[in-house]
């Protein structure tokens, strides 16, 4: 019933927007909307993930609340995006559990993993800063490989379900490259005149784009650092711990700093965001996701600085517990927006090319 109401309100707003067309130059959402006369649920899932919640159309709109038409695209689409994450998640029931108790679930998982590591490896530590003195290499890699593969399967199934639902087809190579460019440059976060977007309030600023960039590239750098670590270990036979002049540590250090600044910035912006434009149902999971990403990067940096201290074992268990929790939450959190948005942009660029 609640889902129907959310979709109905957003569909009504889209019909009004299609008659008005005042916002058609603002972002990709309005040109995509104008290709339709009537909207079904899948169209709404497509449009909602094309929106990045900049709020510009809300501040420009003569029909926004308190007007009786109640056109509030950013808040209505934020609610729809949250519904789409649940609808296409695999397995579906986990998204409902995590959504209702996002903070408690995350905390419980961290505590359980930490307790498990403590029971298995109590008394172990390392003078030289070698993690594998505390937790054997095969144990650590097996645990993370199993969790990583399960998470990857859940993510892929969710993305494929979403792509099929919004009818993504006949994608050309040029549309794919254009989408990659748009996504990597966060094109639409710059506002329609590249003066920045109206988030967290009516004043234009590029600050959100900067924090998004830092978070995204910090994540990519940390991923590269982990992959390089595995490459050094297996193929070059150069073993951890690495120092700052070696690529695995250098990428990890820069990535960790980027992630800490980016996530902290996004968290502050979210706290300052215009309350009229927030979807209260989804905001809890958003906070937990950003907070977990911050804690993962922060504990990673702590590990670098306290590598030769007596707290190394406890810090390592905490860091690994946070990473495992973060991994498990990924397919049911805002993280999927990155892929759904890419998929929606791919459909948009494909349709633009065909028209
Ligand atoms: S958001 Fe408001 S101003 Fe913009 S197109 Fe829709 S109805 Fe028109
Ligand atoms: S909130 Fe921003 S991105 Fe979303 S539809 Fe409005 S102008 Fe476009």
Distance between the termini: 37 Å
How many domains make up the 3D coordinates?
A: 2
- Unreliable stretches (pLDDT < 50, length at least 5) are none
- Helix segment count? 15
| Radius of gyration (Å) | 22 Å
- Percent of residues in helices: over 70%
Strand content: under 5%
Number of β-strand runs = 0
The geometry reads as elongated
Run of helices and strands: HHHHHHHHHHHHHHH
Largest beta-sheet characterization: none
Q: For the residues shown, what is the average pLDDT?
A: 91
Ions, cofactors and other ligands present here are: iron/sulfur cluster
Classify the secondary structure makeup into a structural class. Answer: mainly alpha
How would you describe this protein?
The protein is elongated. It folds into two domains: 2-86, no CATH class; 90-354, no CATH class. Helix 3 packs across helix 5 and helix 9 (137-165) runs parallel beside helix 15. Helices cover 70% and strands 0% of the residues. The longest helix has 30 residues, at 207-236. It contains 15 helices and no strands. The chain has 355 residues and is an all-alpha fold. Bound molecules: iron/sulfur cluster (2 copies). One iron/sulfur cluster (SF4) binds next to helix 1 and helix 4.
């Amino acid at each position: 019933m609640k889902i129907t109401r959310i979709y109905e309100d957003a569909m009504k707003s889209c019909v009004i927007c299609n008659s008005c067309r005042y916002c058609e130059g603002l972002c990709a959402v309005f040109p995509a909307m104008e290709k339709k006369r009537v909207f079904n649920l899948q169209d709404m899932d497509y449009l909602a993930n094309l929106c990045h919640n900049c709020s510009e159309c809300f501040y420009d709109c003569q029909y926004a609340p308190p007007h009786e038409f109640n056109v509030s695209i950013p808040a209505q689409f934020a609610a729809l995006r949250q519904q789409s994450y649940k609808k296409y998640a695999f397995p579906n029931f986990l998204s409902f559990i995590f959504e209702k108790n996002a903070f408690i679930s995350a905390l419980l998982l961290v505590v359980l993993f930490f307790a498990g590591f403590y029971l298995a490896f109590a008394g172990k530590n390392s003078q030289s800063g070698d993690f594998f003195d505390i937790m054997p290499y095969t144990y650590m890699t097996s645990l993370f490989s199993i969790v990583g593969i399960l998470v990857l399967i859940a993510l892929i199934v969710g993305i494929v379900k979403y792509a099929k639902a919004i009818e993504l087809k006949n994608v050309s190579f040029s549309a794919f490259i254009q989408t990659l460019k748009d996504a990597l440059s966060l094109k639409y976060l710059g506002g329609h005149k590249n003066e920045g977007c109206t988030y967290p309030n009516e004043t234009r600023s590029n600050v959100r784009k900067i924090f998004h960039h830092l978070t995204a590239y910090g994540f990519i750098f940390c991923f590269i650092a982990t992959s390089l670590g595995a490459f050094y270990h297996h193929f070059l036979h150069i073993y951890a711990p690495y120092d700052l002049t070696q690529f695995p540590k250098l990428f990890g250090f820069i990535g960790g700093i980027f992630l800490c600044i980016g996530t902290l910035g996004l968290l502050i912006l979210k706290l300052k965001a215009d309350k009229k434009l927030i979807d209260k149902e989804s905001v809890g999971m958003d906070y937990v996701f950003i907070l977990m990403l911050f804690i993962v990067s922060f504990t990673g940096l702590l590990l670098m600085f306290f590598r030769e201290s007596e707290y190394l074992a406890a810090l390592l268990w905490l860091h690994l517990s946070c990473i495992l929790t973060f991994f498990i939450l990924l397919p049911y959190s805002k993280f999927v927006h990155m892929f759904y948005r890419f998929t929606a942009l791919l459909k948009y660029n494909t349709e633009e090319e065909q028209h």
